[in-house]
Amino acid sequence: MEPPLQKTLLLLLCGINLILLQFVMLREFSMILTGIEIVLVLLSAAYFLGFSIGYSVSDLLPLGAVKGALFALFLLHLTLPFSPRWLAGYLVSQGARQYLLLTFLFVGAFLMSTAYSIFLPRWVEEQGSSEAVGRFYSFEVLGSMLGVVLLGAAMSRGNLLLLMMLYLSTLLLIIHLLHRSYVLLSVMGILIGFYGVCFARLDQGSLEYFLKSSKHFTTVHSLYRVHSPYQKVDVVENDKGARFLYLNGLLDFNSTFLEDFNYFLSELPARLQGKSKVLIVGSGSMSSVSHVAPYAVSIETVEIDQAVAIAGRDFFSNYNHLSNVPNWSLVIDDAKHYLGSHPEKKYDLVIMDVPAPTTIQEALLHSREFYALVGKHLTEQGIVSVSLSGDFEPGNLTPTTVAAGLMSAFPQSWVVTSSSARRSFAMAGWRIRFGREGIEALLKGRPQETFAVFDRAAMDRTVGDTTPFSLDQMEVVLRNNVRRLGAMYFPNNQKGL
Amino acid sequence: MYHTRCFLYGLFFAVLQYSYFLALESGVSATMTIYMTVVFSWLAGTWVGLRLGSPVLRPYHTLLSLAAYLGTLLCVRQFPFDQRVLPFCAAGVSVSGFMVGIFFRSYARHFRQAKALFFSENNGFILGLMVALWGFLEFGKTFLVAVPLVLSTGLLLLDWAMDLRERQLFPALDRLRARSLGNER
Q1: What's the per-residue H, E or C state across chain A?
Q2: Residue A147 to residue A141: CA distance in whole angstroms
Q3: Given an 8 Å threshold on Cβ–Cβ distance, is B115 in contact with A230?
Q4: Which residues are paired to A296 by β-bridges?
């Protein structure tokens, strides 16, 4: 016997919203808590824990209480994604940063998915037949499939408002199916309309409040904010006109000191290589393009996330000067796939302008296997330039691990440590055409720069027996994640961590 | 005992799903298309399993799911970064999802309350997410091959042992009951 239409429709709508909500929650909360791998998994676990809570109370609550709870949920979710930012900003401004993680895991578990998971077991049990599981659950799964399609459509436009309107409208229909009250339907419809009208202002205001509280800005103006399929992308400007690019809450470009970063990552190797065919992996602010342009025959940027490319092109034109670079082209693709599927491409210089390896995906771009793939695309004297994401010192995990990967893939390499860029950089290749003298000659011309150059033997001593990132193990990502999580949210228990 | 088995199946499903993501994202591409393909195919397979699948989970369902996964891994390794393998991978993911649907239909018979079924499976899924992250970071591609293999073998053995016990225990109990009824008369 097929279940009643009202119940199947409601489960279908629940399935849609579970997918949409999971996306919004993961993006927003990871922006607030910083999107390192361990945070993403903890948030996913909290979200699924909400299901378990819903299942366990499914037959305990009277229908009236469920209806009331859903309406309360509607009112609460009308404040998404602003309220989490306000809450996080308030907690940080009150010096309670250490409670952020636990607060948001709690919110994720109890106030997000719980209500949606009450109906399925409740109705199966009402039906009193084990056969009902298949029939009822299939409608929720069908809804989730529809949710994936809707999510894909909304995200291809990077439009959070569209996604939220879809989500709230679906929630409105769920509540209407339960209440059957046209007055309530009208009130909720008006509230959603009001939400749509106020969205842009609240979105901007809440983000600026959160950034002011958590990132030490005195004043901040949000210029660009997108939920791309891959991450939350934010461009902000401070009172002095300096611009900042944040990816999932992590600083990717700061127009003050990261200019030095781009000199070491891009300009120095480009000058050392001379006229080159260049590939830049990852775009960020795209300012590395202008740093290599004077020395490049052609420049290709391969970036997985179109939203980041747009942010770089449109909001950092003062730094990347793309309009003055005629020989530049952009490819939207995953670098692994791009290089793997174009074996004929050869470059004199490959610049790895990608974030530090705090997630599996980022670590894959620093892995032995990826560097080996890059090696196949280098000309005989070509080099790859990489930021080591920290100071190259014995025991400093990330820099030594990244360097170990490069050393396992290439026979020749150099590391340069810079005081102005506050980190170290590596260059590696099959047969590097320059030596220590060439590097030092260029760096001595830079004012107020203290630097150190490591040759292969010095690199060997510093790296020691460090295992590189590889498809065989990425344990350093886990250790760094745990350390970072401890430093951010459990500062008093650092020894324990 | 069904709660434990249900929990372990949840753990297996999470590890399998996460492993599909990792295998495809590292071997083909990390674009959103891949992510969406895996999620959609998994759900589509589950839907078919719930609607049309067998009402009893048989060992060959688990073996089929594992074979689909290992086939996908092999496909990705043989043709790295080649998006033409995507339809085959999607089919593999759907077959694994299909087994999930059958699992829910089949295990529902063993639970007096449906909420206990979903609760146990979901808790296993949560643990599986964390195990999969930790396992991949620690053991890399060895984890991708070994753990789904070990988990599915363990589940098959557990199911076999439990079925054997039920088949021997329940007739024995029936005989005992019949004898005691005979004595009463």
Answers
A1: CCCCHHHHHHHHHHHHHHHHHHHHHHHHHHHHHCCCHHHHHHHHHHHHHHHHHHHHHCCCCCHHHHHHHHHHHHHHHCCCCHHHHHHHHHHHHCCCHHHHHHHHHHHHHHCCCHHHHCHHHHHHHHHCCCHHHHHHHHHHHHHHHHHHHHHHHHHHCCCHHHHHHHHHHHHHHHHHHHHCCHHHHHHHHHHHHHHHHHHHHHHHHHHHHHHHHHCCCCCEEEEEEEECCCCEEEEEEECCCCEEEEECCEEEEECCCHHHHHHHHHHHHHHHHCCEEEEEECCCCCHHHHHHHHHEEEEEEEECCHHHHHHHHHHCHHHHCHHHCCCEEEEECCHHHHHHHCCCCCEEEEEECCCCCCCHHHHHCCCHHHHHHHHCCEEEEEEEEEECCCCCCCCCHHHHHHHHHHHHHCCEEEEEEECCCCEEEEEEECCCCCCHHHHHHHHHCCCCCCEEEECHHHHHHHHCCCCCCECCECHHHHHHHHHHHHHHHCHHHCCCC
A2: 10
A3: no
A4: A276
Identify the sign of the CA torsion A390, A395, A401, A404.
Answer: positive
The two three-digit tokens of residue A407, written as one number: 């050393």
What residues are paired with A329 via a beta bridge? Answer: A300
Q: Please state, in angstroms and rounded to a whole number, the distance separating the CA atoms of residues A17 and A21.
A: 6
A139-174 pLDDT, tens digit each:
999 999 999 999 998 887 778 899 999 999 999 999
B122/chain A closest Cα distance in angstroms: 6
Indicate yes or no: CB of A120 within 8 angstroms of CB of B118: yes
Q: Select from B13, B41, B137 the residue whose CB has the most chain A CBs within 10 Å, as the one to mutate to test that interface.
A: B137
Contacts of A275 (CB under 8 A, 6+ apart): A295, A296, A297
d(CA A479, CA A66): 42
In the block, which residue shows the tokens 């260049």?
Answer: A278
- pTM above 0.95? no
CA-to-CA distance for A257 and A421, rounded, in angstroms?
A: 7
pLDDT tens for residues A213-263? 888 788 889 999 888 888 888 899 988 888 888 888 888 887 766 778 889
When comparing pLDDT for A494 and A126, which is higher?
A126
Answer yes or no: is pLDDT of B121 > 50: yes
ipTM computed for the complex: 0.89
pLDDT band at A494 (very low <50, low <70, confident <90, very high): very low
Residue type, B65: S
A475 vs B: CB within 8 A: yes
Please give the residue of chain B at the shortest CA–CA distance from A153: B36
